[in-house]
Every structure is written in C-alpha cells, then in structure tokens.
Amino acid sequence: MRKIMIIGAVGAGKSTLVKALFGESRPAVKTQSLVYRDWLIDTPGEYSENPLYYRSLMATSHQAAGILLVQDATRSRNYFPPGFAGGFPVKACGAVTKIDHPQADAGKAVALLRQALPEGTIVLTSAASGAGIEELKELLLPIVDPGR
C-alpha cells in the first residue's frame, strides 16, 4: 500500500498528528529520520526547513500516494517556499495543527499554507481535543486506498 508523506517544520505537530490519527495518547517523540508506519510516512521537520533535504523529500514522494503539508497555527511564518506542493508528483493536501492553542491564529495559518498549497483541501486540527482528526482521516485514507 502506498502511503501519505507528512511534511512540516520542526515542532509543527506532525508526530503528534500521526499519533492522533492512530488513536494513540502517549506523547510523541521528535522524528529523527523517515518513519514508515502503516499508511503514513513521518518526516523530520529539518527536511522541510532546509532546501538541501528537498531531494530526499522528492525521492520519498515517489513511494507515496500523496503528501500532507502541516502548518502550526501558533507560528507566524511559513517554512515552505511558495508553490512547494506543486513540486511533488502526487496529490497534496494540508493540515493546520494546534488550532485550540491560546496563541493560535487558524486563519493566518491557512493563508500561510495556501502560499505553498494553492489548491487542495486544508483541514483544521487539534490533536489535544481531537478536532478535525476524523475529517483528516476521511480525506487521507481514500488517497492511499482508492477502493475505500
């Protein structure tokens, strides 16, 4: 089965989002290398923050059915270059994390993510409250298994 590759900055909540998608409550640990798990590929945040790692992301995307760009709602800057999603040969969608954090600005996060992902669905999520997690699963699972 092909997988969804999750890409986002260090601390954006990628690993925590993965745990929420699998219904796990234990704390996430920092991803140090590519982690292949069931229908997901978790990538280290450094891969999206450093253009030297873009080749690795591109190569890995050929094993994927789609990519999920993750933007932290508490951040005021975008870690993806403009049009970043268009550089991948697979379907792209987005997730905004930490939407219920006191410093979250979901609208700004969506606007930042739209710079990298001009088209495609963006789901607002919170691993803490579970908001948007089922919606995100319903978006992603048919990409990896079109017969669902």
From TrEMBL:
InterPro entries associated with the record: EutP_PduV, P-loop_NTPase
Keyword flag Nucleotide-binding: yes
Entry keyword annotation includes Iron: no
Highest taxon, organism lineage: Bacteria
Pfam family, any one: PduV-EutP
Annotated keywords: Nucleotide-binding
Family: Belongs to the EutP/PduV family.
Name of this protein: Propanediol utilization protein PduV
Gene behind this protein: pduV
